[in-house]
Amino acid sequence: MPIVVDLPPPIREQAGGNSQVTVQGATVRAALTDLIAQHPALEAKLFDKGEIRPYINVFVNDEDIRFLDEMDTAIADGVTIALVPAVAGG
């Protein structure tokens, strides 16, 4: 079973309209590197100077990577990585 990245509607256009993309990698960083290799237009939306943008929350099977090993969180086939933009307002 592959690693799947769930993409939110605001960035799907940069991924050819896909809501999910299958990737490979042993860590979140490697998986997102593969995602960018497949869809280079996503890089500007997700990264700034090589780091994930602060308003992009990353979850591995519903666990926030900020409470794991962040971008170095180990992953395996079958996990889902969800990219969730922060929402602000009031």
Work out the helicity level.
10-25%
How many strand segments? 7
From the alpha carbons, calculate the radius of gyration and give it in angstroms.
12 Å
CATH architecture field: Roll
* Corresponding CATH superfamily: Beta-grasp domain
**Strand order in space, largest sheet:** 2-1-7-5-6
How many separate helices?
A: 3
**Biggest beta sheet summary:** 5 strands, mixed
Determine the mean pLDDT.
95
Strand coverage percent: 25-35%
What oligomeric state is this? single chain
Keywords:
90 residues, 5-stranded mixed beta sheet, alpha+beta, two-stranded antiparallel sheet, Ubiquitin-like (UB roll)
Question: Your description of this structure?
Answer:
The protein contains three helices and seven strands. Strand 3 and strand 4 form a beta hairpin. It has a single domain (3-85), classed as Beta-grasp domain (Ubiquitin-like (UB roll), Roll), CATH 3.10.20. The chain has helices at residues 9-12, 28-38, 42-46, and strands spanning 3-6, 20-23, 47-48, 51-52, 56-60, 63-64, 80-85. It is globular. With 90 residues, the protein is of the alpha+beta class.
